[in-house]
Specification:
single chain, alpha/beta, Alpha/beta knot, seven-stranded parallel β-sheet, five-stranded mixed β-sheet, 10 helices, 36% helix, 21% strand
Length: 258
């Protein structure tokens, strides 16, 4: 275990750079987990993190002590509170950070039982919330277009609350081409359609297509889908938040498959 007080320390410099730059994270294929909940979620699903950083003032906190006990002391760095504040992206700086290798994505099988397909969803909070809903609903495969928010950004990670580590997320996909080759049914969620979500048989392999917060799905992706469906809204609102639409849709699948 090493104590670090200088910003010129090589590890501190790397951690701060990674925490605040998507370019650095993509280049190094490394991700920073900001906060004890994310670090614990990673450790529970994937094992000990590559490198753990702990705030000096938090060393005696019981949950921090328990987390440290699960890791090799050689991979733990104790940072001054000032350095931790520089590295953390939270308004109230986290007491624990971790640096991990960004998991590699696997090709999504074209006969996958359930797939969440996101096109041009740009709000990090929405992307993270949808990943969380997918993991909670038992969906394991997520396909994202090139224009979606970066899955491994701090805001998406926080909104996902650990969902990332239970999912296979493939980014930068030409989603129209992928959906046209998918062997199950594909449902384009749109504001208005003749068919509602509740009319659909969701016990068969299904890809659920969710589009941009403002403009929705592209015409090309709607055309590539097997069906266009809508979530019935008897109230006065014209549309649903993208993340809410995804949650309703995925849990209708759960209801039907139980």
């Amino acid at each position: 275990m090493k104590t670090i007080h200088s910003r010129d320390n090589a590890f501190a410099k790397q951690l701060i750079a990674l925490a605040h730059s998507s370019r650095e994270r993509k280049k190094a294929r490394l991700t920073v987990l900001d906060g004890i909940h994310l670090v614990r979620a990673y450790a529970d699903l994937l094992g000990p993190v590559h490198t753990l950083a702990v705030a000096e003032s938090a060393l005696a906190q019981p949950e921090v002590v328990q987390l440290m006990a699960r890791h090799d002391a050689r991979h733990i760095n104790v940072l001054s509170d000032a350095l931790m504040a520089l590295a953390s992206s939270l308004e109230s700086p986290a007491c624990v950070l971790a640096m991990v290798s960004t998991p590699s994505a696997r090709p999504v099988p074209l006969n996958a039982d359930a797939v969440l397909v996101l096109e041009d969803v740009q709000d990090p909070g929405n992307v993270g919330s949808m990943l969380r809903s997918a993991a909670a609903a038992g969906v394991r495969e997520v396909v994202l277009s090139k224009t979606c928010a970066f899955c491994w950004s701090p805001k998406v990670l926080r909104a996902g609350q650990g969902a990332h580590f239970a999912l296979n997320m493939v980014e930068g996909v030409e989603v129209v081409d992928w959906v046209s080759r998918y062997q199950g049914q594909s449902l384009a969620l749109v504001p208005q359609a003749a068919q509602t979500l509740y009319d659909c048989q969701l016990t068969q392999p299904t890809a659920f297509l969710i589009g941009n917060e403002g403009s929705g799905l592209s015409a090309a992706l709607i055309s590539a889908a097997s069906h266009s469906v809508t979530v019935p809204m008897p109230g006065p609102m014209e549309s649903l938040n993208a993340a809410a639409c995804a949650a309703i849709t995925l849990f209708e699948m759960v209801r039907q498959r139980r």
